[in-house]
Amino acid sequence: MVFGVLFILPTAYGQFSLGVKAGMNVANVQYHEQLPNEPTLHPIVAFHVGGLAQFDLSQVLAINAGVELQGRGFRFNEDILGYEVSMSARPYYVNVPVQLALHGKGVYGALGPYVAFGVGGKHRAQFTPKNDAIPIDDIHQSIEFGTKVSDDFSPIDAGASIDFGFETNMGLRFTLNYSRGFTNLIPKDLRDPDMTGYRLTTETASIGVTYLFRPVAVRK
């Protein structure tokens, strides 16, 4: 749908490019109205890989749309009821960003919304007994996306992202990205109507490299 709209978009400049990108993510989730004794969440390292289409509207202005596989998640380590609990969640999303980009003289910047669809991942929990606590088996399970009580995360994440970096006249682009989700990760049926402020949202910083098969000329 996104690519179909962009293909028919009239442009003043008329240049069209396809590219591939990959990079490293540092991902976490953020509490809104954190509960007492809630564990402190820490970031995990993941990856992203995908492709993009770029439509130049002028020498310095472009619209970018992409499809990416994004790794996200979080981890924590806490002492809970006589156990040292080490837990991590590594969900994967198909991420579709659309950005308005400014580029020229080697400098690149872009801003726009994204929508992401949960497609898989794993979560694990390790319980280390302290003192005389009874041993508990470790948990290794696939992540389930949906709206039910038995699900782990909501199936759709939407938010905004911003990029900044530089590009060469050989088609290489190096960027720093920050993305922030606006939707609640907690499945709908798990949400307490009396705790409307209690939400979890995604937060991801990344470093990426893009190669455009039809390079964007760097204007001097």
What features would you describe in this structure?
This protein is mostly beta strands and 220 residues long. The protein has a single domain, classed as Porin. 3% of the residues lie in helices and 61% in strands. The chain has 1 helix and 10 strands. It has an 8-stranded antiparallel barrel. The protein is elongated. It starts with a helix and ends in an 8-residue tail after the last strand. The model is unreliable at 1-12 and 216-220 (pLDDT under 50).
Please render the helix and strand layout as text.
Layout: H1 2-7, E1 15-32, E2 44-56, E3 61-71, E4 74-80, E5 83-104, E6 107-129, E7 139-142, E8 156-167, E9 172-181, E10 199-212
Antiparallel strand pairs: 1-2, 1-10, 2-3, 3-5, 4-5, 5-6, 6-7, 6-8, 8-9, 9-10
